[in-house]
Amino acid sequence: MSQGSNFVDYVKICCRSGRGGAGSAHLHRDKKTAKGGPDGGDGGRGGHIILKGNAQLWTLLHLKFRKHVIAKNGEPGGLSLRTGKDGDDEILEVPLGTVAKDAETGEILFEITEDGETKILTPGGRGGLGNWHFKSATRQTPRFAQPGEAGQERWMVLELKILADVGLVGFPNAGKSTLLSVVSAAKPEIADYPFTTLVPNLGIVQYRDNKSFIMADIPGIIEGASKGKGLGYRFLRHIERNSVLLFTIPADTTRSVSEEYDILLKELTEYNPELIDKPRVLAITKSDLLDDELQAEMRAGLPAQIPSIFISSVAQKNITELKDLIWSSIHDGDNSYD
User: Fold this and answer.
1) Is 151:46 a contact under the CB 8 Å cutoff?
2) Which of 129, 170, 181, 251 has its CA 20 to 30 A from that of 261?
3) Is the predicted pLDDT of residue 227 greater than 70, yes or no?
4) DSSP output for 257-300
């Protein structure tokens, strides 16, 4: 994923599905039949507005400036029991992990998680029944038919939550982007100032025996992010779809590793308490700055309840061991946090 304005993870659109076509009230007439019975056909269904998953998309940018999506109306029924044509559906392709919500109530309608998966966002109106449906022994020539059902008009919110195996969690300048650039082919922007990463970055990490997993670099969280401070609140939603959370804390932190870890965990759980149940791994980055004595001293103060490892992306220190630890957490998921 490239960084910049091309990444859009939230859009609000007005969806109007098509109206159903009216049924026909036609009575059969030809040169041999002066007073035939009802033969009015049914109206066609109004067009749906449909979301379709596309694994090749990673952003909602193509929908950012499309504020109104309008499907076609159904055609009216015809004579000789001819059914009207259904209105054309409007199909919106979206990246996997897109959540559809009602903009007014905030109700979550569904989520698109598979390539090619389709779900109706706004259903079209049903077509009206033709008059032949209403004939009976006592009413042999009904001269009425059903009108088509009106379509729906609703404001919808589409919200993207990135699907990744591993989510990098840490304060700004914790070395997350550097780690992602080392273990994958992703090229995130790396600089020595806070909030270098302004949008999530994805990378495919190659593992042993041609296996791989997806790692996501989430923009840095700050204390108070769950209450809307900094950039973290905007992107915390992406962490909800990660299988494993990789906490990255730099060796040169001004606080203790345990203290920084506790602050990060607190921000995540205040945003969504369910995040505390995800498998977690702790990586102390920039460990090339430490000698053996300092590393042993820091290790004694690490949180005991999660697996941890000292790494250095620049020096390629313990990167393979980190991949082993992540792979084990993804597929075992047996980390316990009492």
Assistant:
1) yes
2) 181
3) no
4) HHHHHHHHHHHHHHH-GGGGGS-EEEEEE-GGG--HHHHHHHHH
